[in-house]
Every structure is written in C-alpha cells, then in structure tokens.
Write a structure and sequence with these properties.
This protein is an alpha/beta fold. Among the domains are: about 45-180, Leucine Dehydrogenase, chain A, domain 1 (Rossmann fold, 3-Layer(aba) Sandwich), CATH 3.40.50.10860; about 195-350, 3-Layer(aba) Sandwich (Rossmann fold), CATH 3.40.50.720. The protein is built from 14 helices and 12 strands. The chain has a 7-stranded mixed beta sheet, with helices on both faces. A 5-stranded mixed beta sheet has the order 1-2-4-3-5. Helix 1 (about 15-30) packs parallel to helix 3 (about 90-105). The longest helix is centred in the C-terminal third of the chain and has 26 residues, at about 370-395. It is globular, with a radius of gyration of 21 Å. The structure holds glutamic acid. Glutamic acid binds near residues 77, 349 and 352. Glutamic acid binds near residues 78, 153 and 352.
C-alpha cells in the first residue's frame, strides 16, 4: 500500500504560497532577509531522465526530480512520489515542507523530495521495479546515507524502497541500506514505519484535544481517506475510545452519527475495494464528510480539500492535517476566523519521517528496536513537538494560526543552526 493518498491535486500556487508563508514568518520573527534567501530556493534541484523498457518492448523516458532544499540540520530527507501530475514546483514546495517538518520535530535532517512523473496504476510490477531502479541510477550520485535519504510517498511503498536500496547497493558496491527508509523489515526496515504517519497523527490529535479540553473518549471524529494514513488513523482513534462518525475514500464516504465500526468498515473495504454497500450507514460525498458535525476532522487523503469555497462548512473544532497540504491559504483564513484549531501538516504528519529517522539510526548502528521502543520514542517526539509548537504559537502568534506558528518555530531553529554554521555573517536578526 502506498504511503499516502489515492489522488493529488497540488496546484501551481503551492510553491508560491509556501514561499510567501516562509517570508512572512521570517519577517514576523524580525530576522534578516538572509534567512529567507537561504530558504527561498533548494540547495540543489536535479531533473533527470529515467529511460524504462516497458513490458511490450517500447521505451518510455520518464522525467524525474530530486529537490534538496536545505541541509543546515543534516542530510536531506524526504519521500519520492510516482505521480503523473508531479511538477518541478510541486517537488520544490514539498521539499521545503520537509525542511520545516524535520526542524520542528527535532530530527537531524534537512528537507528533500523527489518524484517520477509516471502513472504506476497503469504499470506492471516489473515496470514499476524498472522505474524505481532507473530513478536510483539517474540520481544515485546525489543520494547517500549521509547525503540524501529518500522514503515512500504517494504511490511508492516498502517494495519500491527495497528495489531502490538494492540498486544503490549494486551501484556503490556496498549494501548500506540506510540510504533509504521505509524499507521492508527483511532489508533493514523499522517495525511500525508503515503506520507511523497515522500513529503520529493520533498522538498529535490527542494532544490537541487535551489542549482544548475535549475528552478523547467519546470525541466525534471524521476522517477523509481510508488508505494507509486515514484508515489506520481511524482504527487507532477508535481504539482510543473516539466515535468515528464518518470516513471516506476517493469515491465517497459513509456516515453514522452513532459511530461506525471501523474494523468492520476496513474489512469491507479490503474485500470489496470500496466503502459502498455497508448496511445501516448513510452514504455521503467527500464534501459532506468535511462538513460533518464532529469534534476532530482528519483530512488524510488528497491535497487542497478545504478551500475558500467549503471551509465555512467545517464544523469540527480541531483539524489535524494527516495529508500534506489539505488546506488552501483561503481555507486556512476562514478556519482561523471560525476559531478552528488547524494542526498543520508539517506537524500532524511528521510521524512518518520521525520513524524514518529511527530506521536510519538503527541501520547506522546495526541493531533493531522492538515495537515498544519505536512507539515510545515516537509518542515522546510527537507530544514534545506538539507542545513546543503550540506553546510557541500561543506566546508569539496571537491573532495568527498554528501553521504560521509551526513555520516560525521551525525557521527559528533553522536560523540558529545557520548562525552557528557561519552562514549568517550579518547575524540572525535585523
Ligand atoms: N513522505 C513522507 C512525508 O511526507 C515521509 C518522508 C520520510 O520518511 O523521509 O513526510
């Protein structure tokens, strides 16, 4: 199963709005524009052709990207997506989010992101393998366990990571599997990595609810997305005693104000491939799901879902962004006006890269942790990161939102590192 969503709809504005929020954060922190200059463009952006022989003997030359945004905190880190709509600007914006994510959660990594512009849904498994290996052959010289460490993202998974690790080992003549994370356990993967994004999201949702005095037991939750992130987050929230009133996939959703049995729903989805045909529930659209009467809304599927057009319909008190970029800037503005706490993606879905970090640490010292250890460290990191960011937001961002607070908190840490590394000759502040 792929790391994240079933579809994506990133707009060309994603890079622009990311840059404008970074600039605004630097200004609000009263920092030198030099900090913004370092964050404005990726350190390195590589575009490479990936020639692949298809099963019918034809050759397809796919375009691929790797954006290495900023490595002031450590090696570049971030997923690789296989998607027909990926663009250079999208990959750049996503790599910037990784820089912020790693900074605020406290993993010693910089931000990176990659993509192959292809449609894996139309490929055979062997074709997908050739694309994965081709990507590493094209990009291998800029990757490395101490340089840039890819991971799964949209439509890539543990198997893709294993092929990439194998190709890298062949190229470099050394099987150092720490070059990618999110691998299968048999080749140096970490237990709990596959559900780490959901687990992290749930720890964050619990902290956010506690902060707003919403008892988690009995809290009404709606989840957009029934894939690896959304489906598992719903299951875990149910285990926490929440009432999951709605869940959806790319085709639509289901609603039951009395609470769904997520175990049964996921079993149905597994056997039929869809959420349709479950008795005793109301079938709803994705738009209706976002507008459900609930306490916590977890958009964990597509990007650009909560927009200027529908944000006013959101009734949840907390939005926890399991997906990358589910809320547009216009949507954000309306949620803020309606006093809805939005825990931003860079915070809410950072569980994935956090357990990637644990995987890399284990690969580096040649030892593997058990699940209890992984989970304990993940919980601690998530709770600490949430409280750091929330505290900073309350102190410094009155009248603003938690996304701005998270950006500012992350940029503050990045700027401190830049200063110590001698990148800011004129100091951090203006
Ligand atoms: N693709 C995931 C993300 O967007 C995980 C990245 C990683 O583990 O490096 O956070």
């Amino acid at each position: 199963m792929s790391e994240k969503v079933e579809e994506k709809t990133t707009t060309d504005d994603t890079l622009k709005s990311t840059l404008s929020l970074i600039k605004q954060s630097v200004e609000e922190l009263e920092m030198s524009n030099d900090v913004y200059e370092y964050l404005r463009v990726p350190n390195r952006f590589v575009e490479a052709a990936v020639p692949v022989e298809m099963d019918d003997g034809s050759i397809n030359v796919f375009t691929s990207y790797r954006s290495q945004h900023n490595n002031v905190l450590g090696p570049f880190k971030g997923g690789i997506r296989f998607h027909p709509d990926s663009t250079a600007d999208e990959v750049k914006a996503l790599s910037m989010w990784m820089t912020l994510k790693c900074s605020l959660v406290g993993t010693p990594f910089g931000g990176g992101k990659g993509a192959v512009v292809c449609d894996p849904r139309k490929m055979s498994i062997r074709e997908k393998e050739r694309v994965s290996r081709g990507y590493v052959r094209a990009m291998g010289s800029v990757l490395g366990p101490e340089t840039d460490i890819p991971a799964p993202d949209v439509y890539t998974d543990a198997q893709v990571m294993a092929w990439m690790a194998d190709e890298y080992a062949t190229m470099m003549r050394e099987p150092n599997f720490g070059v990618v994370t999110g691998k299968p356990i048999a080749v140096g993967g970490c237990v709990g990595r596959e559900e780490a994004t959901s687990r992290g999201c749930v720890y964050i949702a619990k902290e956010a609810a506690r902060t707003l005095d919403i008892p988690i037991k009995g809290a009404r939750v709606a989840v957009q997305g029934a894939g690896n992130v959304g489906g598992f987050a719903a299951l875990l929230m149910e285990e926490e005693g929440c009432k999951i009133v709605g869940i959806s996939d790319s085709r639509g959703g289901i609603y039951d104000p009395a609470g769904l049995s997520i175990k049964d729903v996921m079993a149905h989805k597994k056997s039929t491939g869809s959420l349709e045909g479950i008795s005793g529930v109301k079938e709803i659209t994705n738009q209706e799901l976002l507008a459900l009467d609930c306490d916590i809304l977890i958009p964990a599927a597509m990007e650009n879902q909560i927009t200027g057009k529908n944000a006013a319909d959101v009734k949840a008190r907390i939005v926890v962004e399991g997906a990358n970029g589910p809320t547009t800037p216009e949507g954000d503005q309306i949620l803020k006006e309606n006093d809805i706490l939005v825990v931003p993606d860079v915070m809410a879905n950072s569980g994935g890269v956090t357990v990637s970090y644990f995987e890399w640490v284990q690969n580096n010292y040649g030892f593997s942790w058990d699940f209890a250890t992984v989970d304990k460290h993940l919980r601690e990191k998530m709770v600490e990161a949430f409280n750091n960011v929330y505290g900073f937001y309350c102190e410094r961002c009155i009248g603003s939102d938690m996304r701005t607070g998270a950006y500012m908190y992350a940029i503050k840490k990045l700027a401190e590192a830049m200063q110590y590394r001698g990148w800011l000759r004129n100091g951090i502040y203006t």
